[in-house]
Amino acid sequence: MKSHVDISGNRVQITRVFDAPRELVFSWWTQPEKLQQWSGCKEATKCEIEMDFRVGGSFTQKMQIAGAGEFSLAGKYDEIVEPEKIAYHASMGPALVRVVVEFLTEGKGTRVVLTQEGLPDEFTCKAVSQGTMESFDKLDAVLARQAIVNQS
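Predicted structure:
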C-alpha cells in the first residue's frame, strides 16, 4: 500500500501500512542512526539527526536537499508509548507543529498514522506530505532489506 494523504486546513494526516511487525517499525523511529537512513524527501542528500528519545527530550534534524539547500527541524518529545505512539512538537520555520505518530498492528504488518497540525498554509501541507510520503517509501525499502537479511 502506498501512503494515503488527507489534508484539511492546517492539518495533514498520512497513513501507510508497512509489511513488518509493529515493534520493528517503531524501533526505526527511536535511534538517530536508524532514522537517518530513511528520514527526508528523495532529494535529501544528507540527513543528520541528534536525539534524546524520551519524554521531554529534544531532537534536531538537518537535511541537505539537492537544489534547495539546508532544511532544519528541532523539537521536543511530548509523549512516548512503546511501541504504540510518539508525539512531539517541532518548529518548522515560523510554525510550531504538533505531530502524533501512531503504530497499529494490522495482521503481520503495521499501520502507521502520522498526523501533523499547525502547518502555516496549504502549500506547506502539500510539501510536507510529499516529503513524508517519500520518507515512508525509504522506510519501506529499509524494512524490506532487513526482512531479507533476517531470512538469511
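Summary: The chain has a mean pLDDT of 91.
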